[in-house]
Amino acid sequence: MVCNLGLLVEPRTDGETLSPRLFIPGDEVKGEVVLILTEDENIETILIDLKGKCKTKIVIGGDRNKQTHRYERIFHTQQRVLFQGPFKMRADTYQYPFAFQIPETFNYTNYEFRDQNWAQTYSTSGPKPLPPTCLGPYHTDFSSEISYHLTARVPKTNLEDSYVLNFSPSRRILDPAPLPKKVDGYNCSTYHRHYRLTAGGRCRALTTREAMTEAFRHNAATSTVSFTFSATAPTAIVIGRSYTVDFILTSPDEATSNIMPSFTLKSWTLILKTRTDIRIPGKGSDHQKLLEDLINISSGTLNSSIRLNRPLRVANLFPEGKIYAPPTFECMAVKRSYDLDLKVAVECLGETSSFKVKWPDVTLYPAKVDAGVREAIQAIEIGTAQLGIRQQGGLPAYDASAGPQVEEELPSYGVAVQGSAA
Questions:
Q1: Which one, of 155, 47, 43, 45, lies nearest residue 92 by Cα?
Q2: Out of 2.60.40.640, 3.40.50.300, 3.40.50.1820, 1.10.3720.10, which CATH number does the structure's domain 3-165 have?
Q3: Which of 20, 61, 91, 326 could, after both became Cys, cross-link 65 (CB 3.0–4.6 A)?
Q4: 238-296: per-residue pLDDT in tens?
């Protein structure tokens, strides 16, 4: 058989800029399957399937006692017959259009697992929301995967082509409150800098000899500044939306009459720490494992001056228009939750101090809003326009700048919740 089968999905036409392309319930996946024959061939059938699959793997024991447990379930499937033969087809190019509408739920039957309280949503049978695409983490002995594939094929041949869909449930809340939370640096790290003044009244670091002397006997010409770090960040995050983070260096020494040295915020790294709980049915009890991984949200160099006891607001630390992780979710064999970690480097008198801040249990909301919510907003906008009312509501606007921006004046960030150190 001399031929080729290709699957083409129509490009988006709605102007959406999310990357990679994201499908939500109600979306229509359209395209065509192209069959190219270079000689006459007998073709029996051409099919295309849309399947959602959940897979987990857990290896228990080692050496001779190693046991590999696997779970696989196709929880959603749709199929279209594009061509029904058998028929001898002439050498030519054939195109078959297709369309699938992605549903919101699938029918779950609760019979495989022992632990009925592992995932509250799945403690009973019935309609359940389709889980988001979640590829990984992958390790040698443990792995998980939730995936959606379009597959075009000619049965009884090796002709096949597939397309991987990036799917997510839709967001039912238009504009979730970001729930900003202030957290101190990990272990409440406090740094100290000894310094002296030059003849011109500028702060300078101690020389090596002065530092050695100061270790044994304090010199009246030596001043000390102590400082700690804290930050305020959102704990409810819409994927693909930009947020600001507030940095603050706190020092009790600023209240003294001493001249303070300058501080520079050198660099940052913002990280999502993923916690993926997986399970596999067992005879006596389910096999369970917690997988942890890190997703780098953003990192770079700022070299921005930061004043003691005054918040410094930095925008665009969260990449806008980018799908960097699945939303928080649970399904029959996989649960995903997140922590947020921030690492910063602060320079003072030529010496750099590193701080780390942790926000446990942050919530990631889906990137795209539910169609019903979107239609309601559009109806309000059309109605106000027809009445001649200037529209003040609608979807909130966000800064589309690519890089981080330090804001001089801090607008209201909402009421921050004081949190304990991570």
A1: 43
A2: 2.60.40.640
A3: 61
A4: 999 999 999 999 999 988 888 999 999 999 999 999 999 999 998 889 999 999 999 99
Q: Rounded mean pLDDT of the chain?
A: 87
CA gap 331, 336 in Å, rounded: 9
Q: Could you give the CA distance from residue 266 to residue 353 in angstroms, rounded to a whole number?
A: 10
For residue 158, the cross-strand partners are none
Report the DSSP beta bridge partners of residue 45: 84
Q: pLDDT confidence of 417, banded at 50, 70, 90? A: very low
Beta strands 134-138; 142-153: pairing state? antiparallel
Cα torsion 285, 287, 292, 297: sign = negative
pTM reported for the whole predicted model: 0.84
DSSP code, position 102:
-
Helix (H), strand (E) at residue 191 = strand 190-197
Asked if 369 and 171 touch (Cβ cutoff 8 Å), the reply is: yes
| pLDDT, position 373 | 61
Q: Classify domain 180-189+226-418 at the CATH class level.
A: mainly beta
List phi, psi (to 5°) of 214.
Answer: -65, -30
For the beta carbon of residue 405, count every other beta carbon within 10 angstroms. Answer: 16
Specify the pLDDT at position 64.
80
